[in-house]
Amino acid sequence: METAAILFRDHAKGDKYKDLLVNDHCAVESIPVLEHKYLLDAQSIKAVVDDASSEGLAGLVFTSGNAVRALARAVDAYLLEPADENDDRREQWRRILRLPIFVVGKETMDACTSLLLSAARTANGGTRETKDDVMDIRGSECGCASDMVSNIIDFSRQQQSRKQGGGKKPRVLFFCGNQRRSAIPDGIRESGAAELVEMVAYTTVGRNTHDTRRDLIATVDRIVAKCRRNAPAAAVLIWMVVFSPSGVRVVAPLLEDLVHAREPPLVPASTLAAVYK
Fold this sequence. Notes:
This protein has a six-stranded mixed beta sheet with strand order 3-8-7-4-5-6, with helices on both faces. A three-stranded parallel beta sheet has the order 2-1-9.
């Protein structure tokens, strides 16, 4: 049997998954199924800066590279806006980046160090900075959002213990998508250790169904042709790899259509169901 894989993700975000699979499979290809609309703008950043200036903001939270990209684009717009001589926007942004930044996993950390660090250099008038000089990023070892909650709680309690006479709870700003999961908000609220403020940085929508179906059919045909050049008599098993619930909602009906439209089907419908349900 020849095996292949289709990754339902945007290959422009990096091919690390393809790199892991390519040596053990006849073919590995990517198909984007989701699109993102970034919602933050210069006014959004001004609100964050004002919050930090009042010493009310204690840290930032990201669970995806999309949220980081949305923030970085808005920061670029904020720094390019005309400002009066008393409005030192570069220094304001540097102060934001001195706050602890909580992330989930290395991919989100890498997005912070590349995109937000680029904004930091812009904010510093082009001066070269290192990650350790500018940013305090925590959580690269976390595998999911629930793993990061304890880090935020511990940090918030330490912050609270340093305040004489108690005072307000630390405020943590969570840059999230419109379909974010509840692990972080629920965990922080139940702990009572911090005030979590959510800022929806982007929305996720399914890519055009016609375009995705066209790409899926073409990709399957291309993979089968390649595998059968290597082993003409072999069966071909194609793994369908989906990376999020949103992706499943887009891909599942297309896979059903693909299975029932083929005669005979490339793989049994039950096998596909086991992969994507």
